[in-house]
Amino acid sequence: MKKLVFKYFDTFCNGELIPDEKDPGWIKPIEGYDSFGYSVDAEVVFFNAGLQDEVQHIFCIGRADFRDYLGEWFKDNYNLPVSNVL
Predict the structure, then answer these.
(1) Is 3 exposed, middle or buried (0-12, 13-18, 19+ CB in 10 A)?
(2) Which of 11, 34, 38, 53 is the least buried, fewest Cβ under 10 Å from its Cβ?
(3) Is the separation of the CB atoms in 30 and 16 below 8 Å?
(4) Do 4 and 59 form a contact (C-beta atoms < 8 A)?
(5) What is the pLDDT of residue 23?
(6) SS3 for 27?
(7) What pLDDT, on the 0 to 100 scale, is given for residue 24?
C-alpha cells in the first residue's frame, strides 16, 4: 500500500520547494502545489486537509498511516528531517 501512496505523492505533490517570501522559516512547493508546507525551524510538515481526505478515501488508510507515509515520503523525497506531520 505504501508504494501506491508514495506514487500518488510523487504524481500530485512533488515539486520544487521554495522559501515563503513572508516567512523565511517556511518553505513550500512551487506555485500550483498547495498540498503541504514545511517549517524549517520546527522540522514539521503541515498538510492540506483536502490532501489527507483524498488519500484516505482513495487508498482506504487511516489518519495515522497517512501521516506516517507523508512524513516518510517527504523526508526521502526532499532529504529534510521530519520531526512531526500536522
Answers:
(1) exposed
(2) 11
(3) yes
(4) yes
(5) 85
(6) strand
(7) 83
CA 55 – CA 53 distance, rounded (Å) = 6
- Residue 40 has what pLDDT? 94
Q: What is the pTM of this model?
A: 0.89
The single residue listed with the C-alpha cell 512551487 is 30
User: Contact at 8 Å (CB) between 36 and 48?
Assistant: yes
> What are the tens digits of pLDDT across the range 13-72?
887 888 888 888 999 887 655 688 999 999 999 998 999 999 999 999 999 999 999 999
DSSP letter at 22 equals S
* Residue 30 per-residue DSSP state: S
- Is 27 within 8 Å of 21 (Cβ atoms)? no
